[in-house]
Amino acid sequence: MANAVNTIAVTNERMAYCSIRMRLPAVWPCERRGYPIDMKLISRTFLGAAALAVLIGTGLSGGSASAQENPYGYGPQYVPPYTTWQPQWNQHKYDRRHVILGMVTGFSPYRLSIARRNGVVQTVDLKNGTRIFPTGATPSNGERAAILGYWSNGTFVANRVVLRT
What we know:
The chain is an alpha+beta fold and 165 residues long. Helix content is 22%, strand content 33%.
């Protein structure tokens, strides 16, 4: 902008007040070069859409990166695929969203009661298709168990029960 006029006004020595005034030219440089204003509008719209697509694309890939750190989300489709007792469960290291560890205190069709480490007795719903490992075993009182499932409306629903043999 060759026509711009810059003026700076300072009211005191400490520069407490400073203002910059600029006079802009009546015709933009891109219009002087022969570009019609419609082309400018089209190019800005295209660049804006491209920038939006890039932002959305990076947002979606950022979500998948966090999913790689913790592959288990919420819901029945994210239940870990364990079928045997895991050694880290003895040190109480497990996915607290999908695994409940404790001692069996009661077993009936479609219900399993388990005493957790903190003393709370948790009632778990068993559904059609809940598998008990080792295959053929029946939970009995005092037996250590890991229940793998998911939370649904405040109730833990079991997909699998792994007994410690």
